[in-house]
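A.,

Following up on our hallway conversation. Structure tokens first:
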């Protein structure tokens, strides 16, 4: 894994070491190619490593094992209703290759995925939707298998780890909440803590990995086992064509200086998209959205879209629907770095919380998907950016709020910093967050009037299986609804942030980069968030970024290898 190699000519060069880039590298290496993987950051994994690691693969063969039947026809019907424009050729390629790629990649690499049985599509009442199984998650991974390469793996967000380095699975969260109320949960929690303590004797953080960290770790191990050469701290500044018009080399800068690298068969762009390129990003988002991004793509080097454009590539047509959205809260960490907390599934759908706008009124069903939540903010941009998530002390203790963890013994730091607003009554909370006091009190009173019965007449919260899956199953009759009534009261501000861009480099069904005339540019491929998404700005289910990233990353690597 040295940063420099004697040979500067490779069969395949991949730019970007997130899930898509690692997949493309593994695909090409497993076909017998020499592969160089370049990463600008000092660690690998990109945004994939801090993500939930969900992978949406319709009609995968593992669904039958968990009694979740599916078909390509059903997935096609579902996507026809949720994805605008219908990029038919690439959508069909994704649907027809999803399971084949899953089988091939598991046969040739260390990646292992398992179905998430009870994780519905985001619009579960539409024809063709499933209640679970279409989305898969990585099987937990023991990072000791990486040896010294564990240091090369990007850490999860610190806000999603316990005790300074302990990852927890989705299945463990309910047991942690019940550790003082259930012998079974207490025993499971004790085992987790003991295992973590033993791991910390030998490693700087816990070595049992879940979610996106496990996904990237498995792909990293696979790349190393397959002989992929990985260089970090490398900025790619230029692509160049040869005399035949084929993209055949890159100019890069690293600790040793500036030099050129040749690619005999192909170059694959998987640098993470254009989230941190303000000029490009602004073409695809409304002005009201701001510039907040939850990605970790470094911003100094040219993004894949800029590199591709320099050799004639076409980019997505301008649109305001070019991002995948999440509501996010911001704060400053102890080390001075800026923290961005994505409010995906940990708090908004839990019982006992509402989101209010600048008028002190609700504007959305808080339990809808993170993408739909932000779309509601954008539709009400004058009043709902920022929005405020409001709860009481019982909610904060049991579920946490944003970066404030459940059962936090002290929240004084978050209150003092201004991240968490706290007040003894709703009138004072309204003053603290700058909304009309009477309006906020009326909103909470109206919500509470029906919440005790588990009802939400205004927005129908908890009205489908997706929303209920994110609530608290112990709360009856509605896992998403409970009154807000126990002082003190709390609030956190959330703003739109992108989880990655849907807009990007135009490709064909083989992940080949296309020029403005609709012809493939020889020798150049794009996948992951660099590739214009087949979802066209829609977010139909969990893992709809990583699913296509793996499929088209694998297809790009195999096609380039055969060039």
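Then the amino acids I'd put at each of the 563 positions:
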């Amino acid at each position: 894994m040295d940063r420099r190699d004697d040979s500067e000519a490779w069969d395949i060069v991949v730019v970007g070491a997130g899930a898509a880039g690692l997949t493309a590298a593994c695909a090409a290496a497993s076909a017998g190619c020499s592969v160089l993987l370049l990463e600008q950051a000092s660690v690998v994994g990109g945004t994939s490593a801090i993500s939930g690691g969900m992978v949406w693969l319709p009609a995968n063969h593992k669904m039958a094992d968990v009694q979740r039947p599916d078909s390509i026809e059903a997935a096609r019907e579902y996507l026809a209703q949720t994805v605008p424009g219908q990029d038919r050729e690439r959508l069909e390629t994704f649907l027809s290759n999803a399971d084949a790629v899953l089988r091939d990649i598991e046969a040739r690499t260390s990646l292992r995925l398992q179905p998430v049985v009870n994780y519905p599509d985001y619009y579960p009442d539409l024809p063709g939707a499933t209640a679970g199984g279409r989305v898969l998650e990585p099987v937990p991974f023991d990072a000791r298998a990486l040896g010294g390469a564990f240091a090369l793996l990007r850490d999860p967000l610190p806000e999603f780890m316990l005790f300074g380095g302990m990852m927890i699975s989705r299945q463990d969260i309910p047991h942690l909440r019940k550790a003082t109320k259930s012998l079974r949960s207490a025993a499971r929690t004790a085992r987790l803590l003991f295992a973590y303590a033993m791991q910390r004797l030998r490693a700087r953080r816990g070595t049992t990995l879940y979610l996106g960290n496990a996904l990237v770790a498995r792909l990293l191990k696979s790349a190393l086992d397959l002989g992929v050469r990985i260089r970090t701290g490398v900025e790619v500044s230029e692509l160049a064509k040869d005399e035949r018009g084929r993209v055949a080399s890159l100019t890069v800068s690293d600790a040793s200086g500036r030099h050129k690298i040749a690619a005999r068969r192909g170059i694959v762009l998987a640098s993470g998209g254009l989230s941190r390129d303000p000029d490009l990003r602004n073409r695809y988002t409304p002005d009201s959205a701001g510039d907040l991004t939850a990605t970790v793509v470094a911003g100094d080097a040219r993004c894949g879209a800029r590199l591709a454009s320099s050799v004639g590539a076409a980019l997505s047509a301008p649109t305001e629907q070019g991002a995948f959205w999440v509501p996010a809260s911001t704060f400053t960490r102890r080390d001075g770095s800026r923290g961005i907390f994505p409010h995906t599934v940990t708090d908004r759908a839990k019982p006992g919380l509402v989101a209010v706008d600048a008028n002190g009124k609700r504007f959305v069903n808080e339990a809808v998907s993170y993408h739909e939540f932000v779309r509601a903010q954008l539709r009400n941009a004058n009043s709902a950016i920022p929005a405020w998530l409001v709860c009481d002390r019982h909610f904060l203790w049991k579920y946490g709020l944003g970066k404030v963890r459940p059962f936090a013994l002290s929240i004084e730091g978050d209150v003092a910093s201004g991240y968490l607003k706290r007040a003894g009554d709703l009138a004072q909370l309204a003053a603290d967050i700058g909304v009309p006091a009477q309006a906020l009190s009326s909103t909470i009173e109206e919500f509470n009037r029906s919440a005790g019965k588990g009802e939400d007449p205004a927005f129908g919260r908890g009205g489908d299986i997706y929303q209920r899956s994110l609530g608290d199953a112990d709360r009856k009759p509605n896992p998403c609804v409970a009154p807000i009534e126990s002082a003190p009261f709390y609030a956190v501000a959330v703003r739109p942030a992108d989880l990655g861009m849907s807009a990007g480099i135009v490709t064909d069904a083989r992940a080949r980069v296309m020029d403005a005339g609709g012809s493939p540019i020889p020798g150049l491929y794009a996948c992951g968030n660099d590739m214009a998404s087949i979802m066209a700005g829609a977010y139909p289910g969990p893992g709809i970024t990583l699913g296509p990233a793996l499929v088209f990353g694998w297809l790009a690597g195999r096609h380039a290898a055969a060039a």
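Residues 88-108 form the longest helix (21 residues). Curious whether your intuition agrees with the design.

B.
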